[in-house]
UniProtKB/TrEMBL annotation:
Keyword Nucleus: no
UniProt entry keywords in alphabetical sequence: Oxidoreductase
Recorded family membership: Belongs to the short-chain dehydrogenases/reductases (SDR) family.
Protein name as it appears in the record: Glucose 1-dehydrogenase
Stored PROSITE patterns: ADH_SHORT
Gene3D superfamilies with a match to the protein in the record: NAD(P)-binding Rossmann-like Domain (3.40.50.720)
Keyword Oxidoreductase among record annotations: yes
Example of a GO MF term: oxidoreductase activity
Provenance organism: Halioxenophilus aromaticivorans
InterPro entries, per the entry: NAD(P)-bd_dom_sf, Sc_DH/Rdtase_CS, SDR_fam
One Pfam family in the UniProt entry: adh_short_C2
Length: 251
């Protein structure tokens, strides 16, 4: 079967580690040209250099997704380097301290919305503008199970990820007729740097045991689903928020 990923230009934010770095590796293996951005420039450079050494065409730059101009510049890097932008994954995200809602601060909310929501919005804004000039494009936003239901002691994160789901659905409806598809993945806890040193990070935790599969999803399992959502073969998949949760929503 033809590899429909070959020579596709893919932009990934939060590419220095976690899902972003694994997605970059998985897409490089499929022949994509990569445009990587991250607040952690050294980490992003390391990922890019490793892939370049393996023969991947890849460019990268510092990208603070809370800065609208940085998100615009990352799209510009894609076009300047490769002439187009076929796919984009808005993956950069963060969370603040775990504590009850009544102990959360305005700063907690501002930071979560700046990175997790506005960062996705800024990315989509310029990605879609470019895709409209081409007549096609695919966008994948990384939301969370916290975007589909409650997340006790993570209220700002939960609210921000719900907003990502709303942005995803809205873009899908606005631009589907322009041949631009937008979907979101909603993973359950997975052992990435985002949850390092938290109560969520291992299979013995109550959070892992709450899953019907009695374990967390491994990062590569999440990324495998991300690749599927980005695949040009899934050409009628639009406006979906796919839970990758080991069956929690089925209960």
């Amino acid at each position: 079967m033809e590899n429909l990923f070959v020579d596709k230009v893919v932009l990934i934010t939060g590419a220095a580690s976690g899902f972003g770095a694994l997605l970059a590796k998985s897409l490089a293996q499929r022949g994509c040209k990569l445009v990587l951005g991250d607040l952690n420039l050294d980490g992003c450079q390391t990922v890019a250099q490793t892939l370049a050494d393996q023969g991947t065409q890849v460019v990268y730059q510092h990208c603070d997704v809370t800065d609208e101009s940085a998100c615009e510049d990352l799209v510009k890097l894609a076009v300047d380097s490769f002439g187009r932008l076929d796919m984009a994954c808005n993956n950069a995200g963060m969370s603040t301290a775990i504590r009850p809602l009544i102990e959360m601060t305005e700063k907690d909310f501002d930071l979560n919305f700046a990175v997790n929501t506005k960062g996705v919005f800024f990315g989509m804004k310029y990605q879609i503008q470019q895709m409209l000039t081409q007549g096609s494009g695919i966008i994948l936003n990384v939301a969370s199970m916290a975007g589909l239901g409650a997340a006790p002691k993570l209220a700002p994160y939960c609210a921000a990820k719900h907003a990502v789901v709303g942005l995803t659905k809205t873009a899908a409806v606005e631009y589907g007729r322009k041949n631009i598809r937008c979907n979101a993945i909603c993973p359950y806890f997975s052992p990435t740097p985002l949850i390092a040193d938290t109560p969520f990070e291992d299979d013995d935790s109550p959070f892992a045991q709450a899953s019907p599969m009695k374990r967390l999803g491994q990062p590569q399992e999440i990324v495998n689903t991300m690749v599927s959502l980005l695949s040009p073969e899934n050409s009628y998949l639009n406006g979906q928020t796919l839970a990758v949760d080991g069956g929690i929503l089925a209960m």
